[in-house]
Design brief:
Elements (H helix, E strand, L loop, with lengths): L4 H17 L4 H8 L3 H13 L3 E3 L5 E3 L1 H23 L4 H11 L5 H15 L1
Helix pairs in contact: 1-2, 1-4, 2-3, 4-5, 4-6
C-alpha cells in the first residue's frame, strides 16, 4: 500500500529517533512531533497493519525492512533537498522546512535530477 505524507513523517521520525536513541516508543514519537499519544497510537496501528512497523519488547517501535526502506527514502530526500535549497541561497531553517514539505510530493524523476544537479555544482 502506498504511504501518505503522514505515514512517511512517522516512519522518518522513528528512523531519526532510533538513530539518536537506539530505541523508540510511541510516547517518544508523540513528544518529538508534538502530537497526542492517541494520534500516534492510531498511526502506529495502521503502519503495523501495513507491514512497516513491528512492536518489540516493551512496546518498542521497530521498522520492518519495508518501513526502513521508506524511512530512508524520505530522509534521503530531506537531506538532498535541504542541501540543494541552501546551495541556491535559502536560509537553513527555511530550507529544512521547505524540504520537509517537498519531499513527500516530488516525483522520483525530479528528485533524481536535483540530486544530479547538486552533485554537479559541488564538483
Amino acid at each position: 500500500m502506498a504511504l501518505q505524507e503522514s505515514g512517511e513523517m512517522y516512519l522518518e521520525t522513528i528512523f531519526l529517533l532510533s538513530k539518536a536513541n537506539g530505541s523508540v516508543r510511541a510516547i517518544d514519537v508523540a513528544n518529538y512531533m508534538g502530537l497526542s499519544q492517541a494520534s500516534v497510537s492510531r498511526a502506529v496501528h495502521l503502519l503495523r497493519d501495513d507491514g512497516y512497523l513491528e512492536l518489540g519488547p516493551s512496546r518498542r517501535l521497530l521498522l520492518t525492512k519495508s518501513g526502513m526502506s521508506a524511512a530512508k527514502k524520505v530522509y534521503d530526500r530531506h537531506v538532498i533537498l535541504s542541501a540543494f535549497l541552501k546551495e541556491i541561497g535559502v536560509s537553513d531553517p527555511v530550507a529544512s522546512d521547505d524540504a520537509c514539505k517537498l519531499e513527500h510530493y516530488m516525483s522520483d524523476e525530479t528528485f533524481r535530477a536535483i540530486r544530479r544537479h547538486l552533485r554537479t555544482i559541488r564538483s
